Amino acid sequence: MRHLLPLTLFAVLWAACGTSPSPVTDAAPDKPRTDSMSMRYSDLVLKLMGAWTDSVSEPGALVHEIWRRTDDAFYSGLGYVMVENDTVFIEHIALTFDDSTGAVSYDVRVPSQNDGGTVAFALTACAGDSMVFENPAHDFPQRIVYALQANGDWIARVSGQGKDGASRGFSYRFKRGAATPTP
Q1: How many structural domains is the chain composed of?
Q2: Using CA atoms, how far apart are residues 114 and 58, in angstroms rounded to an integer?
Q3: Rounded to two decimals, what is the model's pTM?
């Protein structure tokens, strides 16, 4: 079922993955950001804009994320998985910045999960070339990490504990490029 979770995220990105759905009220912790964290986030998120594809992590599948800047505080994205010519998974993703608190949220909505509601993950760390988003109250995943590589690729790592309490996770290596036509 791993190919059903593109990040995200993706991914991500974050689906139930065989666990019971989380209530839509899964709110990300609202932590204020430091100015330096907010500035680093702004630098990194601009590098995430565009079309990204992973063609190696899921044999027989193409995992895509497409990001665009809507305004200074909102970035919208679409994650989807293609197997041959079929779209087998779609998620709506967004990054939002709250000017009043400095909080950053990675929001994911999968129409077939969580009663179609959005699950929010708070930015808890942003240092070097990585952004860490967490929501400990969510069933799976609880953590999503985007790490920019020296060659410009992004590694997206989705992890947490499953319903059975076992730790699990998976990664995608996104390369910049044209995405398969949007579903």
Answers
A1: 1
A2: 24
A3: 0.79
